[in-house]
Structure formats: C-alpha cells, structure tokens
Amino acid sequence: MKSIIVPVDFSNQSEKALKIAAGLAKANKAELLVLHMLEISPAIISRGEEYVPQVQMVHLIKAIEERMAAFLDKPYLSDVHLTPVIKHYKVFSEVNDLAEKHNADLIVMGSHGTDGLDEIFIGSNTERVIRNSSIPVLVVKGDHPEDYAIERFVFACDFREENITAAQQAKDFANALGASLKLVYINTPGDGFLSTPEAYEKINHFLAKANLGIEVEVFNDYTVERGVINFAESYGAHLIGIPTHGRKGLSHFFMGSIGEDVANHSGIPVITFRIS
C-alpha cells in the first residue's frame, strides 16, 4: 500500500477517519493525501469561473489552507508522509480522479449522520464516492483509538462467481495489513435457504474457481445484514468487507438497504470492494 486518500470537511467524523487513515499510512509507510473539497456557491459557478473575483478566490483559498493546516496539526500525524490537497469540484467524481492520478490504493471516509442519526449512505457523498471509486473505500463510523489495528477481517458475500475479484482484493488487503481473513456466508430463512451441505458445495466451488485457500463460516440468522454484523461482532472483527457494483449500486447480495444497513448499523469499520 503506497498511497491513501482521506477526504475531510473539518468535522469530527472526518477526523475519526483521518486517525484510522494515519494509522494505516504509518503501518504501511504510505503517503497520506488529505483532500478537502472547496465549496463554491452554485450561483458563482453558474456564471463561469472566469467571473469569480480573483481577490475573493485568493482570500478563500488562503483561509482554507490555514484551516487545513490547523486541522492537520495533530501529534498522530507528525511522522506521516502527508500531502494536503484542495479541490473545488464534486466530491464523488474528483476523489476517484485523484486516486487514479496518484495511483492510490485506498480511500478512507468518515460517516455523517442524517437528522442526528448514524445513517450515512443514502444521498451522501460517501455513497457517491463508493459508487464512483475503482479502488476500495473504507467507511469509518464512531470513535476508534489512534493505534486502531486491523487484525481480524471478515468478508461477507453470497459466493456467486461475480464476487471472485472482490474476494481476491479482500485477501490482498488482509495480506497487506497482516490481518487474518475469514469469509462468511449468511444463511437466512426463506426461498434462499441452503442446507449445510448445499452451502458448502457452493462455497467450495467458489473457492476453487477463485483459487483461494481461506476459511469460510456458514452463519445462520434472520436477515443478511444482522447476520453479517452479529457474526463480525462474535468473531471480534476489526473490519467488515462487502462487495459493490459501483455505479450500478450495491451487489444484489446486498440488494436494497442490506449493504447500507450493514454500514449504518455496524460500529465496526466497513470496506467496499468493486465487483468487476
């Protein structure tokens, strides 16, 4: 892992993401690109950037640079290779452009509440970044220590062949962190229920096709989202991984609100991997 991007808006949630990103950067001796998206009034933008008063822009950028410097004046960043970046475009497209330019390996984002609740995906910049990102996106919610270590990593999927690339990426990510990886299949009541032999037949076919020698657990629960969270908590996981279809939305395994609920209701950080 050579480069990590963390978008910040100077909020408490973005600082929580910054702490996790700094820890990952230290552990992997990676560069940390701290990105702030400069918000300019739509009325000004609509008139064309050439009409934005130069003096106003200079003062605005100077003020943001000073605020960024103050925000990054943290002891836990003192020995991190850090590069501040200020842009003034749409977050969800610009982050991926920056990732491609710097060949970044990971984006780390803090979650924000909606109406005071810890709901983050619907209509949020986090969701838009995930949908546009070609690299993994790590979503952080809640407080975690500065030295938060990812030692146990759970990756959940439905073991369809389309998830092979995402599972391989999860294995590579775990190897980069020196974390143990466990895959889980959530078995729920209803039409999709599989017997234990059926579940393992499906899993073994997937592992053979993916050339993965990873331990897999079959976990029974009433819903997929609760099963993922309950299993991760019982396993003592430090990270939950899920596959996504990017612009096409969340994987059909997480159709509708399932993937959103996993991230929204889990106190454990969640990382998404793009399905090819």
From TrEMBL:
<dbReference type="InterPro" id="IPR006015">
    <property type="entry name" value="Universal_stress_UspA"/>
</dbReference>
<protein>
    <submittedName>
        <fullName>Nucleotide-binding universal stress protein, UspA family</fullName>
    </submittedName>
</protein>
<comment type="similarity">
    <text>Belongs to the universal stress protein A family.</text>
</comment>
<dbReference type="Pfam" id="PF00582">
    <property type="entry name" value="Usp"/>
</dbReference>
<feature type="domain" description="UspA">
    <location>
        <begin position="1"/>
        <end position="141"/>
    </location>
</feature>
<dbReference type="InterPro" id="IPR006016">
    <property type="entry name" value="UspA"/>
</dbReference>
<dbReference type="InterPro" id="IPR014729">
    <property type="entry name" value="Rossmann-like_a/b/a_fold"/>
</dbReference>
<feature type="domain" description="UspA">
    <location>
        <begin position="151"/>
        <end position="273"/>
    </location>
</feature>
